[in-house]
Design goal:
The chain has about 100 residues and is mainly α. Helix content is about 55%, strand content about 0%.
Amino acid sequence: MPSWTKKDERQYEHIRDSQVERGTGEERAEEIAARTVNKRRRTEGQTPNEKTQGTGNPRRRYEDRSVDELRNLATQRKVAGASGMSKAKLIEALRGKRGG
């Protein structure tokens, strides 16, 4: 993953310091600052949005994968209507459509 820029570092420090001044604990302030900077980086395309990528570990059961992973897998296998399906429906459709 690409490292933070100087701008990212400054933004992190500013948010962290601001949170501490408001009375937030140091550890929580660091978490808030890091999440804020990382979210901005994702929205600007500087880093991939990990939540919506990939199909999960192929050795894991469908029930143990996220809905996003199941939708990506369904799209890969050309399952019609996958974007509107619930997790249970996705699993049912994927089990009915093995292979590529």
